[in-house]
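Morning F.,

Quick status update on the modeling queue. The single chain you submitted on Monday has been processed. Sequence for confirmation:
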Amino acid sequence: MALHMQRLRDGKAKIPEFRGKRTNAHAPEFKGWKDRVEQALGALFSKDHDYTKRFGALTFWRRRIVVGGARSGWSGDDQARLERDLELAEQILVDALEELDVAPETAPTLAPPHRARPGSAGQLPIVVNVTNILSQATAVHVSQLLASLQDIDLTPGQRAAVEEHARSLETEARGQQRWPIMAKSLEALKTLGRPVYERVALPLLLDILKKQAGM
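Structure tokens below.
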């Protein structure tokens, strides 16, 4: 993960250099830059993530049909497209790196439990107090968590957002547990209010902790 994050930082830092040199998008150096950035986005967020798809859709030149298969010369339209797409690429990398930088703030909540030394009164470094319809010994199911929100005044759109992010968290908790994706869902649930966060996000976090502890 650290390698791919560094590649994103290096890729972002390279953009002003490309602008200054008025780089041709067909240059090997530029193609290598694009491939590395796209690969790093795919590794950190998945190939189907919005960041990866948006970056992959950038052409950096005006594509056109050329008779005979020969590549046409670099035009003013190509340069304009390159500069526009470089601006879009920079924003994608800024957003992606910002999201990745947020992840460590959430990570301690989901960190593997502390292993106490023999004979010591070791405790988990994080204690999550959950006031919910579910006890700590109960398996977490998204449908039950969503049902607990019936007494909260949410719009249909907000309820749909809660379900979307809750199911995303549940999928990651039972799968790859990718910090960037979980952090995005947790932040989204937090913006919907404390009751939503306490009744949906915290039980799912507790479920992840239990899985990491082998419970």
